[in-house]
Amino acid sequence: MLLHWHYTLTPLRLFACTVALGLPCLAVAETSSTNAEKNEETRVAVLAEDENVEDVERSQPRRKDTDPTASATNSTQPATDTESSDAKTGAKKVAPNIDLKEVASPHEPELKADSAAPAESEVATTPAEDSEIRPGEETSGMVPMEPAIQPAKSFTLLDTEILPGTSTRLAWSPGIQIAGLSQPTPVLVVNGANAGPTLCLTGAIHGDELNGIEIIRRTMYDLDPEKLSGRVVGIPIVNLPGFQQGSRYLPDRRDLNRHFPGSPDGSLADRIAHSLFENIIRRCNMLVDIHTGSLKRTNLPQLRADMNNPDVATFTQGFDRMAVVHSSGSPGMLRSAAVEAGITTVTLEAGESHRIQEHQIEAGVNSLTSLMERQGMISRMFVWGDPEPVYYDSDWIRAQHGGILFSEVDLGARVSEGEILGYVADPITNAQYPIRSSSNGRIIGMAVDQVVMAGFAAYHIGTEAEVPGE
Ligand SMILES: [Zn+2]
Is Repeat set as a keyword in this record (predicted)? Predict the structure, then answer.
C-alpha cells in the first residue's frame, strides 16, 4: 500500500525534487594562510572524486548514432548461475523467510541465515527448464511485453539458498578483519515467486553518503515477494567501517570506488572490492550503484550512464524523470567494472553527503520503482504513463579567479549562453568577476556559495540531448 501511495504523489513531488540539493565529491583543502596574494600559487588538493567533475569531463564523447535496439553488445556475460549444480549438492543452507516489513529485533545477531527451516512459504519444487533470465535477453532492455509468468527457482547467494517467494537478510564478510572482530555487512534479498532478472542495489560505497541507504531500505521493504518477478538484492551500506566513522573512505583512506573489480591479494580496498564483486555483483543482471555528491556542490537527482553502451542506454529509459548525464566512467569504479563484466549498470546520484534528504530519497525510490515496473518485475496500481528520463550533454564551467563565489542562479534553472550565473568577488581588492554560461541549458549541478580558487568547477550546465534510439 505504501508503495502505491508513494506513486500517487509522484508527479507533484518530483517537481519539488528537482530543486532539492545534492553535492558532488570534490574537496578543497589546504589553502595557505593568506589567499589574498593573487599570484601566489594556491594548493588545491583534489581528493578522489566520485561520479563528478573529472569523470564527466574526461568522458569519451557520446556517440550520436547510438541505437540501443540495434547493436548487439559483445559484453561478457556475468558468471552464470549455479542454481542447478547447487541444487544437486543440497549442501547449502536455506535462508529463513524473513518478512522484511517486520522490524528486526536489535538483538538479532545472526545475520547469517543458518536456520534450516524454510518457513511456511511454498517451495517451487519443479525445477523445470531453466527459467533464469540472463543479461542480454529480456533484462537489459525494457521489454516488459507480457512475459509468460513462470515460477521462480531458488536463488543461491553467499552459500545460502533463498526459496522463491521469500525474502531474507544475509551477511557478507569480505574477510579482511581480525577474525574475532569480524563484522558482517548486511545484504537484503527478495526472491520473487516468479522468474525474472536480478536487480542489485548498492549504497554507501562511500560511507558518508546516506541517501542511498534510505532509498534501498524503502525500495526493498515495499516489495512483496509473492508479487515480484525476479530478485532484488540490496546492500544498503557497502562500506560499513566508513559509515560508522562518517567517512567516505575505507579505514586505509582508500576510495573503494576506485578499486573494482578488485583483486584477492592486493590492498585492503582491492580485497574488499574483489569479495563484493565475486560474491554478489557477478550474480546481478542489473545494478544501480547509489551515491551522493560530496562537499560543497549540489546536484539535481541524476543518473550517470555510459550512453555509448546500448544496453545501458536502454536501461536508463526505465528511470522516470531522472536527469541522465553521459559519463563513460573511470577505471576502478564499480559501475565501469560491472559494465565490463556484462552487468547493465548506472550510478544514481542523489543529493549530498552526510545528509538525509527527503526529496532526493523520494526521487530515487520512485525512479527505482519505475525501473522495476519497466523491467516487468512488479506491476504498479497507478501508472502515470511512460517513464520520462531527460538526457543531457554537459559541461562544467570553472571559476577563472579565486575569491568568494556568489551565485545568481538556482539549481535547476534554465540559462542561456552568456548569461551571468554568479560572481567571484575578491575580498581584498573588491574586484568582481562574473561567471557566464557557455551554452543554453539547465543548471544540473553547482557549487554552493563558498571560497573558491581559480579552476574550481562551479556550474554544471546540461544541454538536452536526444533520447537514445529515437
Ligand atoms: Zn559516492
Answer: no
Instruction: Give residue 145 CA to ligand 1 midpoint distance, Å.
Output: 35
Structural domains counted in the chain: 2
Distance from the alpha carbon of residue 40 to the mean position of ligand 1, in angstroms: 32
Domain boundary among 355, 388, 421: 388
How far apart are alpha carbons 148 and 210 in whole angstroms?
Answer: 38
Instruction: Determine the distance separating the centroid of ligand 1 and the alpha carbon of 307, expressed in angstroms.
Output: 20
How confident is residue 113, by pLDDT bands cut at 50, 70 and 90?
very low
Distance 49 CA to ligand 1 centre (A): 8
Which residues crowd ion ligand 1, with CB under 5 Å?
50, 206, 209, 291
Please state whether 354 falls in left (phi above 0), alpha (psi between -120 and 50) or beta. left
The last residue of one of the domains, among 332, 357, 388, is 388
The 93-94 sheet, strands edge to edge = 93-94, 160-162, 155-157
What radius of gyration, in Å, describes the C-alpha atoms of the chain?
A: 23
Determine, yes or no, domain membership for 444. Answer: yes
- Ligand 1 center–CA 69 separation, angstroms: 31
Q: Which domain holds residue 265?
A: 85-388
Residue 397 lies in a domain: yes
Output the nine-digit C-alpha cell for 258: 576506485
- Looking at the fold, whether 337 and 457 belong to one and the same domain comes out as no
Ligand 1 centroid to residue 162 C-alpha, Å: 30
* pLDDT tens per residue, range 139-165: 444 444 555 678 888 999 999 999 999
The Cα 469–Cα 374 span in angstroms is 17
Tell whether 234 and 373 lie within a shared domain. Answer: yes
**Interval 316-327 mean pLDDT:** 90
CA of 260 to the centre of ligand 1 (A): 14
Distance between Cα 206 and ligand 1 center (Å): 5
CA of 238 to the centre of ligand 1 (A): 11
Residue 113, in any domain of the structure: yes
Would residue 129 count as lying in a domain?
yes
User: Which of 223, 202, 214 minimizes the C-alpha distance to 99?
Assistant: 223
Whether the per-residue pLDDT at 21 is higher than 80: the answer is no
Q: Are residues 358 and 400 in the same domain?
A: no
CA dist., res. 284 & res. 132, Å (int): 12
The answer to whether residue 133 scores a pLDDT higher than 50 is no
User: Ligand 1 mean position to 44 CA, how many Å?
Assistant: 20
- 255 C-alpha vs ligand 1 centroid, how far in Å? 9
Distance 310 CA to ligand 1 centre (A): 24
Q: Are 315 and 435 part of one and the same domain?
A: no
> Residue 456 is part of a domain; what is its CATH number?
2.40.50.100
Residue 90, all three cell numbers: 543440497
